[in-house]
Write the structure tokens for this entry.
Amino acid sequence: MKRLAVLVLLLPLAACGGAADDGAGPGAHGELTVLAASSLTDVFAQLATPFEEDHDVDVTFSFGSSTDLAEQVADGAPGDVLATADSTSMGIAEDAGVTGDVATFATNVLTIVVPKGNPAGIESLDDLAGSTWVRCADEVPCGKVALAVLDDHGVTAEPASLEEDVRSTLDKVISGEADAGLVYATDAVAAGDDVDAIEIPGAEDEPTSYYATTLEQAGDPGLAADWVTWVTSDEGQAILRDAGFGSP
């Protein structure tokens, strides 16, 4: 009788397993976790929609400083894909041995953003002196690029604050807490009518490159690889270009 009871209990479980597998394939109704540089917030959300439909999954994101995210995955934090805004941050994860093949998928350049209407009359980097302006902290990618660009232009004006990532910098400008901020060109595009953008001559000489890789701790390595393939595909690249990113 005990043997019969076990069989009766197992049959419904087997039936449920069979139903879930019919036509669904690997990763169906699953979840993909992407850890990405904050400057990718808007465009990755756009890229997620068709990916979710094609793969029948939910894509969740953790956006932040590339350096912080790389250190987290190096320490074994959960995640499936890592996308950084510089090679140094990606190197932290690579050195920890938690990455797969690394792909370069986009570039970006620094620009000045000011609140709509430019109330402080900022027209160039030289006008930052005497104004309330902000940039990213030295140790994060957007801060490193800002330091290089400022040095190239001989600008010594000190920022009112150093922000943890590029989105925090942008938010200070949108809220009117700062007269200007140094962010990526794509952040200015994403902010739309909330800001005005002022190009920095020669900024293209200090481009930011973006890198993506699968992680050793990925729950579904194949699905993670599909995301990297998607952002480097022709269609994915078109979405990135529309958001203001340059080709890798």
Residues 1-28 have pLDDT under 50 and may be disordered. The two ends are 67 Å apart (CA to CA).
